[in-house]
Each structure stands twice: as C-alpha cells, then as structure tokens.
C-alpha cells in the first residue's frame, strides 16, 4: 500500500521491494493516517540523501520529469531511466502524470521554481504566471536587515532585523557563513538549503531539499521531441538543472565521443528520431536568449536522453 504511494509520489521504484516487506506485516485494515507520516518521512529523507553521488551523471532531470530509474546489480547509480514524456490527445505531462486541458498543477510543486497557476493548454504545453520577487526588483529590506527564505518558496518570505538581544542561528558551509533564514547552495550537490536556527552541520531535510527544475513547465515540447539537456560546465562536475536544450538539426553528424564506453551494452539514447549507443554523440551549438552562442558536446551517458556539456 505505502509502496504504491511511494512509487507514484517519487518514482523511486527500486525502493519498493523493502517497503513491500513492511506492508506484509500490516493488516488489510491499514489506514492512511498510518501510512502518510511514514511516507513523508521517507520521501524527505530520500530526496536529500539519495542519488547525490550520481549527480555527475545528470540524474536530477529524470527525477524532475518523473522517470523510473533502472539499476544494475553492483552499481550504485541507475544505468538508464524509463520515461513517459509524450503528451497524448491534447494532454500535458508533468512528473509522470497526465493532465487534461485546463487542469492545473499544484502550486506547491512549482512554487520553488517561481512558477504558479500552471495549467495545461490544448497545445500540450503549460501556461503559468512567473513570480517577480521584490529582491529581483532591487527592493532592499532596510539597514541592518536581511531577507529570509523558505526552502519550498521562490521569493523571500520575510526579513530579519536582529538586535543585540536577539540570538541568530548561523550556518558555516563550504567556508561561507550564512545567517538564520538565508538560503545557500552547497558545493558538489544539487541541494537548496535555508539556514535553520540550530544547524547540526548536516545537509538534510527539513532545511535542505533536492533542487526542482520543473523542466516540463517550460520545455515540454523539447522533452517530448527527444531534445537533449545542456549544462554549462561546472568546476565540481555536478550537473543539476539544464541551462538550455539542444534539439536535432538536419546537419547533425553522429560521432564517437567516448571510445571507452561499453560497446557490448544494449543501452541506447534517443535524439530526435536517431538512436545512439553509449559513447556516441554529436557536437552542436546552444543559442541563449541574450543572443550569445556556446558550443556543446553531447553524449549518450545515461539513457534515454543525451547529456550535453559546454565545450571550453
């Protein structure tokens, strides 16, 4: 029962086996009030702790669009994902769910990416209101004050104007100090955190959570057309939310990007209508909204999508 709930809520399918064993200890009269607290605790822990070591592969985009990880014995990270991302019959897809025309995504699922009121249109795309946070408009909290945040929100939720009599919590992470309520993004992770009043030094829920990209809100067509997520090169190798998308062109030429890839594997990636083996890829260009262009190298690393990185 709870196993089914975890699958539909988080798509972390591989964890259902152990949860099923727990279910066998229960009777058929198990109530939702028993199940829900267990699930909330499990999901909060899993979202922060799981897959952090796999973020160099670009796993978070698959979590974001509701794909199911496929694992291989002896490997800690998924070897591929099973995805259902193509809308059917004028519907929209969001994290594994099919939404009908006019149906709205729960704001709690998109608020931290600064989108609200997202509803499905008959084009298979979403239409949303984009938040304009006061801090983006140059509005400052005032002398001696700073903005405070909620890990689940986009904009600041208040301000702190502390006095000498007030005790303010502090967090020291990556040799940087943050005050209670300030947000930070720890190195080598895809976490978003807000400094709590009492920090235990651990990057865990409830003050930290996995980043949500909400890619299907703005790029549902790119995902459905088997375009590839593009990431600006980062110093630590961790790749989180895509910076852009690379889509097929008539001049694309498939090349071997990684000659050391497992040639015996039957794993493949899709790029448009092309099928690529592990280690195969292409070079392309990424056009940004400001008119700038960057070179990208795309490779089949973690199917079904190619992974594109900036060429420096």
Task: Walk me through the structure.
It comes from Phaedon cochleariae. This is VWFC domain-containing protein. The protein is of the alpha+beta class and 312 residues long. It has 3 domains: 2-81, no CATH class; 84-223, no CATH class; 225-312, no CATH class. Helices cover 17% and strands 26% of the residues. The protein contains 6 helices and 21 strands. It has helices spanning 2-10, 16-23, 32-49, 60-64, 107-110, 215-224, and strands spanning 68-70, 80-82, 92-94, 97-99, 115-120, 126-130, 146-148, 158-160, 170-173, 176-179, 183-184, 191-194, 208-210, 228-231, 244-246, 255-256, 268-271, 274-277, 280-287, 293-299, 307-310. Strands 15-14-21-20-19-16 form a 6-stranded mixed sheet, with helices on one face. A hairpin with a 7-residue loop joins strand 20 and strand 21. Helix 1 packs antiparallel against helix 2 and helix 1 (2-10) crosses helix 3. It is globular. Residues 1-48 have low confidence and may be disordered.
Topology:
Layout: H1 2-10, H2 16-23, H3 32-49, H4 60-64, E1 68-70, E2 80-82, E3 92-94, E4 97-99, H5 107-110, E5 115-120, E6 126-130, E7 146-148, E8 158-160, E9 170-173, E10 176-179, E11 183-184, E12 191-194, E13 208-210, H6 215-224, E14 228-231, E15 244-246, E16 255-256, E17 268-271, E18 274-277, E19 280-287, E20 293-299, E21 307-310
Parallel strand pairs: 14-21
Antiparallel strand pairs: 1-2, 3-4, 5-6, 7-8, 9-10, 11-12, 12-13, 14-15, 16-19, 17-18, 19-20, 20-21
Helix pairs in contact: 1-2, 1-3
Protein name: VWFC domain-containing protein
Organism: Phaedon cochleariae
